[in-house]
Structures are given as structure tokens and as C-alpha cells.
Amino acid sequence: MPARKPMAGMFGGIKLNEYYKQKLEQGLTYQDFVVEQLYNIGLPIISYSSKKYQHLIGENKCGFEIKYDDRMKVSGNIYIEIAEKSNPANKEYYPSGIYRNDNTWLYIIGDYDIIFILSKKHLRNIYENQQYKKFGGREVEIPTSKGFLIPVKYAEEKLAIKTIKCSCPKG
After folding, report:
1. Residue 85 resides in a domain
2. Strand, coil or helix: 132
3. Residues 4-47 pLDDT 10s
4. 104 with 130: CB under 8 angstroms?
5. What is the pTM of this model?
6. Is residue 170 part of a domain?
7. Which domain range does residue 48 map to?
8. How many domains does the chain have?
């Protein structure tokens, strides 16, 4: 029996608009969790809530991009995004993540157990010089995102400016 093709407008068996909404809410909840964790160590963040200010300036006044990697524990890698598109049917990807043109200088990524604070400039250098391959990373493309993987162990031991291990309840 031939493999079934995914239905148009579907990703992983979920309608794309539902999938997008789930991922957005998941990311926003994680962002709030990180804001609390950073506040607890003396780094208060003032986030922008309107799309206008997020596109004009950035996610927050501090220049921190916050990303939730819900597959980090399973894959053993962190996913660093370089481009995205809102719908898989769109032809073009647009710069995002470490290539977003805004005030971001720190890239914060993790899950509810561990948070990595990384330099956006350093991550760009790693990507542009394909250094991620030297420590077991690789490029990845999914229907709405492009990026590369970095092993969690390498991020923790070599790349992170700061690592926050959380022993608090999930957000």
C-alpha cells in the first residue's frame, strides 16, 4: 500500500491554523515563564505586546529573543531558527530567529528545565561558517521554518553565556 500524502492545510494530522495557534500559545506561555525566571535572577524584561512594536523594535526592550524548544529533551539538540514562513504554501522564507532585523542581541532558548542564554552574533557566525557541523549539528528545514541544530551538551558546555536550571513549576 502506498504511503498516504498529507492533506493540504495539515501538519502532523492537525489543521495548520490550529497547529499555528497551539504553537503560538505554547511559545507565549514559555516566554512568560522565562520572563519570571530572568526576573528572579535580577534581569527584568519589558515585553512589547503589539505586533507594531515587536516588528519595529523587537520582542522586548532588552533585546532578548525567547524561543521554546519543546523537542530539546527528545532530540538532544536545540533548534536555532534562521528563516520562517507563516504558511507552507508560501514560496519564500523570511529572515527570523537569529536573522531577524531588530534589537535582538541575546537569543534565549530552552524548555521548562533548562534555559540557555546565547549570543545572537556568535550563533550567526557558527551558522555562516558551518561550525555547527564540527560538533554534530546539522541544518533542518520543515514546512514553515529553516534552521540548524546544536547538541544540548555543546550549548551547555561551550556556547551559553549563562545557563539557568529551573527547579520550579511549569508555566
Report:
1. yes
2. helix
3. 344 445 545 556 577 778 878 898 899 999 999 999 999 999 88
4. no
5. 0.84
6. no
7. 10-165
8. 1
